[in-house]
Amino acid sequence: MPAQGARGRRDQIVHLATTTGLASVEELSRTFGVTASTIRRDLAQLTAAGRLARTYGGAMALVAHPEASLRQRTGEAFEAKQAIARWAAERIRTGETVLLDAGSTVGALAHELRAAEDLTVATTGLTALQELSDVDGVRVECLGGTLRPLSQSFVGPLAEAALERMTFDRVFLGADGVTARDGLCEADLRQTRLKELMARRADAVYVLAHSAKIGRHPFHTWVQLPPGWTLVTDRAADQDEVRALRAAGVEVVLVDAE
């Protein structure tokens, strides 16, 4: 991976932190074609600037960027998100009660549901509320709770308590990352707790995540889903990770992004 000078190389190192998580000095040295001592100097400067963190034993570990806001993420992988949302909308039947997570891809699904008739939608996300608040054919239930401004989502004990009073035909979840080993990656433990509860209350569980999130682990909090859930992503997803997910019992749907 070529870089234009030390500054460009350091920017690329930080970028890698958001897409692959941890990396060793040796791996970075091979990636950028420089000596290990050069990488150590880069990491020391990035750590001093607050962009990376030091691990035990003196090794350097990359950490993720601060969580991006929902507004920042809305324009990413637009075509893939639209294709995933259309596939998901086609699964929903008249008369069903569905649960929508927060997030930009699930928000795109909410937009697809504006033409629905006789549908009940419960949600933890402001995007879905805004999309469906004026739709005559959709009854909207807001779970409430504490608002997380970055994700524009409700979390916490009030949202959890509301979930205990409902069940759902389908739930559609978002994620910051998806791996076969650990499940869904999120930035906040309150999100992981709520998503686990959401999955338990639905007959069918779908995770909507575009290909850049597959195999990604930008944070250190995880959601463990019950067996038999479905991942919907686009065909650019890492194929090794797709095979690992399928081997773990996950149904993986690959859609074509226009």
TrEMBL record:
| Pfam families on file | DeoRC, HTH_DeoR
Q: Which GO terms describe its molecular function?
A: DNA-binding transcription factor activity
Keyword Transcription in annotation? yes
**Keyword Cell membrane, does the record have it?**
no
Location of the HTH deoR-type domain: 6-61
State the source organism's domain of life.
Answer: Bacteria
Q: Which UniProt keywords apply?
A: Transcription, Transcription regulation
Identification of the protein by name: DeoR family transcriptional regulator
What organism is this sequence from?
A: Streptomyces bingchenggensis (strain BCW-1)
The root-end lineage is: Bacteria, Bacillati, Actinomycetota, Actinomycetes, Kitasatosporales
